Amino acid sequence: MRDLMALVDLQKQVWGMHDHECTSPHTMKAATVAGGSVLGAEADGCLIGFCFGIAAKRGGDVWLWSHMTAVHPEFQNAGIGFTLKQAQREWALANGYRVMAWTFDPMQAGNANFNLKRLGATARVYYVNHYGAMQDDLNAGLASDRLEAQWHLDNPRVLALARGGRTGPRTAIAETTKLVFLDDRGALQFERPASPDKAQYAIEIPASIALLKAENMERAQTWQLHVRDAITSLLGAGYHVSDFVRGDGANWYVMERGPPRALG
After folding, report:
1. What is the model's pLDDT at position 16?
2. In this structure, are residues 178 and 204 in contact, taking their beta carbons and an 8 Å threshold?
3. 94: helix, strand or coil
4. Nearest residue to 83 via CA among 113, 143, 40, 116
5. What is the dihedral of CA 114, 118, 123, 126, to 10 degrees?
6. Maximum CA pair distance of the chain?
7. How confident is the model at residue 192 (pLDDT cuts 50, 70, 90)?
8. Looking at residue 1, what DSSP letter applies?
9. Please, are residues 227 and 107 in contact by the beta-carbon 8 Å criterion?
10. Whole-angstrom Cα distance, residue 22 to residue 49?
11. Residues 82-134: pLDDT tens digits?
12. pLDDT greater than 70 at residue 136
């Protein structure tokens, strides 16, 4: 319980949460008894990161729902989040889970890259304003839209990435039809196909939504609405979010039709 209590302060340090927004230590304790887990990362005897998962029914299956993964700001970008997720994956497999899922803000490029590119998750579900109005430092000002990352824990691509392998050939964005993008003048453009029929589509998001919100909240809100419209339209047409590509200062979701591809 002492460790779980310490995670309240860690949530505040990572997300700028208020007391009522933090997950209670008692809730985390109950979840570990009911088939979930809390895994922590330590440095010099202090908790600097954690991931928290609960058992969740999805159709006729039981998945592990990874509600929170956090690393203290002073220790981010050092591979700790990746190590935590791999430890969570190993724990899940050892305890009978084959799929893990969680939500993330589709406007956060760093999270998208981590979930889709580094871990090998895919996304087939989009939640509009999932948590309602949020006032923490990261979320204030925009609707709390979320994509659901689905992580098939023994998928060949996921296993290869866990071992430091390649992610497969990079999507050629220049040759992919773009639905949301900045044009040559820096103007935000949105095009919705009447009948999606391409093998792939690309959707651009800002490099830093936090910076954009600070500079131009109206543009950030408009960009979010365009991304929401593009992704939900394609999900409804049988596409899924398969990849995330960063390069030349741009950040792109890649959506393709059909089942996720295994790494070949």
Report:
1. 86
2. yes
3. helix
4. 40
5. 0
6. 57
7. confident
8. -
9. yes
10. 15
11. 999 999 999 999 999 999 999 999 999 999 999 999 999 999 999 999 888 66
12. no
Range list for CATH 3.40.630.30 in the chain: 2-162
pLDDT above 80 for 261: no
Which residue, chain included where needed, has tokens 């830093």?
208
Q: How many helices (H) and strands (E) does the chain have?
A: 7, 11
What gap in Å lies between CA 181 and CA 151, rounded to an integer? 27
- Report whether 183 contacts 191 (CB < 8 A): no
CA–CA separation, 33 vs 26, rounded Å? 11
> Is 137's pLDDT higher than 60?
no
Q: What angle separates helix 2-15 from helix 25-33, to the nearest 10 degrees? A: 120
Which top CATH class is 2-162?
Answer: alpha beta
CA distances from 142 to 77, 129, 185 (A): 25, 9, 25
For every residue of 158-200, DSSP letters joined together read HHHHHTT----SPP-GGGSEEEEEE-TTS-EEE---SS--SSE
Q: What is the DSSP letter of 80?
A: H
* pLDDT (mean) for 195-200: 92
